[in-house]
Amino acid sequence: MQTRQIPDTLTLADRAGHAMNAIVGMADRDYNDIPFFAANLMKEPANLTHGDWDYGSSHGRMVDGMILARHMSGETFGTETEEKYRANLLSFFKEDGLSYRQTNPHHNWEPNANLIDQRAVILSLTSWYMETGDPKVKEAADNHVAALKRIAIKERDVWYYPASEYKEGGWPSSNAVLLRLAPDPAAFCGRLVMPLLKYHELTGNADAFELCQFFTALIVQRSGVFNADGSFNDALAYRSGHFHTRLGTLDALARFGVFTGDAALLSFVEKSYAWAITQCTAFGWTPGDMKEQAYEHETCSLVDLIATGITLAQSGYTRYWGVTERYIRNHLTESQLLDMDWVKETDDRSGNIPGLITHENIAKRTRGAFAGYSAPNDFCCNVNHGRGHTNDLQICCLGSGTRGLFMGWSNTVTEKKGTVSVNFLLNRSSAWLDVDSYLPHEGKLVLHIHRDIPRLQVRIPEWAGFAKVAFTRELNGSTEQGKGSEPSRWVNECFLLLGAASAGETITITFPLSRRQTVETAIGQTFVTQWQGDDVIGISPEGEHHPFYSGRQVYDKAPMREGSMRRMERELVW
Question: Quick one: pLDDT band at residue 1, thresholds 50, 70, 90?
Fold first, then answer.
């Protein structure tokens, strides 16, 4: 792979390589490589602990995350752990086609098919089959989808699940079915639509589409999950407006709206999404819910916010490209654990209890993971409100964070009907072109064109204006200048139209940077935030344990490094 001088700025593919380290490191080598669920990094020494999620959801998240991270980064280590995760995942299936949580000697729960787990299972099987085309995986996925359809309670216009846990003998309470005592529809039905739809797109599975159709009708027409103004229903029966499951459901509905051409459904999603982002900070911190967990931001919620924003932006709500890039550049990347100096660790194994807890080499093993519950200004959430300090890492957030990197990476450069769009101003190599991003240091992009492109457009941030946007095109020794103030240069509100581009051409785009200050509110707390372009470069008050945004530096000229950006002819599409 040929190297050259590239900007030493945010590269999501590199971040995926760091995530791989944590995905491999979370395996419990003393307990059949079952991944640990949570970490307490404020303990001395830090520890990793298991939870009941580790027998269903966690394996699905790790298999999916590994596939996406390898695809982005090209990293090859950890194959033995990956094979173990995949084998464990398949071993959890029973003959009825559902994935069951296993018993654990340290926790008193009985085997059950948890409905939250099933979403992570079909997600991972879909990525697995997309990557390999393995008929064994397709058979497992087909059986799983058939089981999800079989156990659904079916009424004329909607389907639903009447409990959070299915047992081999059936639903625990027939009375719950008769009384329609369905638990939170977003958590158990709405979020399932996203992976089921992708599996249908990939294989044509009719059961998967039917589940999507009836679950979507449940959410929109009958559930009451979303209020008429788009806000989240905060009743206890709806998990107090739990943000991860609400936003995950909006992601699913948006994708289904695009797939079916349902403009009304997209409008429904946009109304709720527009409300949701008013509850978040501009840099991407989200509440956990609207009650007891309000102070606990999950990386999972942020990734749902990113994914939904991308689908809406692709559907014509173009302002969400900028909104989403701010989330990626800031709280997603700040939430990834790379600086480990503050974590107190040991190599002493004496306190380890297989299947329960380990204290061994926690910093080394978790580097690259994502925050489980973070504060707006700190990796560790230790506020006086809500539940106080809980988990610093959660494996669901590691899987989601990796998927968030992939969503940003895979949507930086897109092609549709001959038009290539640069949507995020991030370093990225693609089959059509390479993007060198000098942000946040300089308002500058350099595009290296690999193929003839009939129509090329590049999103320009709203704060850059248009009058001072300029570009230079170089090809075979000739140079052409252009300005953003020229007529007919702008399409879809925020895209600079460059027209046809030729293989071998280099296009340099420049625009003024914005320095500004905003006051962000998070559950009644205010944070004075300094911005350069779309990057937060300072926040007040600063965090206490592992501060966010306090160590970011900007220069007059972007630092450069010798390197290359990985290019693939075939890319996974999620």
Answer: low
Per-residue pLDDT reduced to its tens digit, 70-129: 999 999 999 999 999 999 999 999 999 999 998 877 877 778 999 999 999 999 999 999
Contact 381, 390 (CB under 8 A): yes
In a domain, 198, yes or no: yes
Integer Cα distance of 172 and 189 in angstroms: 18
Q: Which residue has the higher pLDDT, 564 or 541?
A: 541
Residue 426: give the domain boundaries: 414-438+444-512+558-563
pLDDT at 565 over 80: no
* SS percent in the chain: helix, strand, coil, step 5: 40, 20, 40
Give the chain's domain count: 2
Query: Side chain identity at 95, as an amino acid letter?
Result: E
Residue partners of 203: CB distance under 8 A and separation at least 6: 129, 138, 141, 142
Q: Would you say residue 134 lies in a domain?
A: yes
**CA gap 113, 395 in Å, rounded:** 19
Joined together, the tokens standing for residue 142 give 């087909």
- Cβ neighbors of 244 (< 8 A, separation 6 or more) are 288, 298, 300, 301, 304
Q: Which helix (H) or strand (E) holds 447?
A: strand 444-449
What pLDDT is recorded for position 474?
98
Q: What are phi and psi of 142, to 5 degrees?
A: -60, -45
Contact partners, residue 118, CB within 8 Å, separation at least 6? 56, 98, 99, 144, 148, 192
Residue 461: predicted pLDDT: 98
